[in-house]
Q: What sequence folds into this?
């Protein structure tokens, strides 16, 4: 069997990209899940995506895993996840499972394509940090569709600038004026942005009224100035109630949240509602 070190190096060489792996078990587990998926039958593509989403239940939560290195590189790890890397990991495995041939290499390529603007790594600012930017870029790539506007929704008009106005919260931006300036230029594209969202008071509606399916990406919108969303997860319906399958900092791992999403949101004053993104 090919050693993990050679296997990882080969993946990077084939894709011409610097890759940061957390350990031997991660690449082997990803490859195992992709191979297992190849022998399964699915009634829908949503079911295929949810296979990968549920396979990562109980993986520990950990934030900041993408900012550990000095240079921007593709971080590939599933030993710990935050809400964003969980979504990206599942989505990349789903895309790779649709391919034939070198499935693990397809996963790495898909992850790079999802995470970076135009799928190209050109430093910290090339990573799609803001969710709205992430959705816009991945819609252009033909990966996703935002369906928030298909039903009853509201619009919030604001400018995305949270990262540069709170640069001290970000290790890479802290004491790095040139990088802050670079991020400011990116934020210019999102001045007076009209963001659609479904108000949280409507989230107690039925599945047919909400038009939300299992496996849809749910982004929890916020009233914080300069920021669009504060948390991500996958939709999952249980006994007619919408729940969130997510990497939870509160519970310290990936879980199906025991609270229906409406109950999860209703007493959180800074949470305003959700955006709904469907994988093509």
A:
């Amino acid at each position: 069997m090919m050693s993990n070190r050679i296997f990882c190096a080969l993946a990077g060489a084939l894709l011409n990209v610097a890759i940061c792996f957390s350990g031997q078990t991660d690449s082997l587990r990803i490859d195992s899940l992709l191979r297992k998926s190849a022998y399964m039958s699915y009634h829908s593509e949503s079911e295929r995506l949810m296979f990968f989403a549920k396979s990562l239940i109980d993986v520990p939560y950990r934030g900041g895993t993408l900012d550990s290195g000095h240079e921007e590189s593709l971080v590939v790890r599933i030993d710990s996840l935050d809400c964003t890397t969980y979504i990206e990991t599942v989505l990349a495995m789903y895309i790779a499972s649709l391919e034939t041939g070198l499935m693990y290499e397809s996963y790495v390529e898909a992850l790079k394509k999802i995470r970076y603007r135009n799928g190209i790594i050109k430093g910290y600012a090339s990573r799609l940090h803001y969710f709205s930017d992430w959705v816009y870029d991945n819609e252009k790539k033909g990966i996703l569709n935002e369906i928030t506007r298909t039903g009853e929704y509201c619009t919030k008009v604001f400018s995305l600038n949270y990262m540069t106005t709170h640069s001290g919260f970000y290790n890479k931006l802290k004491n790095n004026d040139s990088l802050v300036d670079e991020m400011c230029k990116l934020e210019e594209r999102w001045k007076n942005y009209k963001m659609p969202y479904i108000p949280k008071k409507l989230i107690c509606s039925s599945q047919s009224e909400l038009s939300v399916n299992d496996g849809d990406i749910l982004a929890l919108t916020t009233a914080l100035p300069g920021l669009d969303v504060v948390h991500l997860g996958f939709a999952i319906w249980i006994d007619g109630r919408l729940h969130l399958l997510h990497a939870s900092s509160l519970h310290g791992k990936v879980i199906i949240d025991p609270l229906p999403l409406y109950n999860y949101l209703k007493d959180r004053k800074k949470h305003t509602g959700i955006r709904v993104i469907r994988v093509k």
The longest strand covers residues 229-238. The beta strands are 19-21, 74-76, 144-146, 154-158, 193-199, 217-222, 229-238, 241-248, 253-256, 271-279. DSSP finds ten helices and ten strands in the chain.
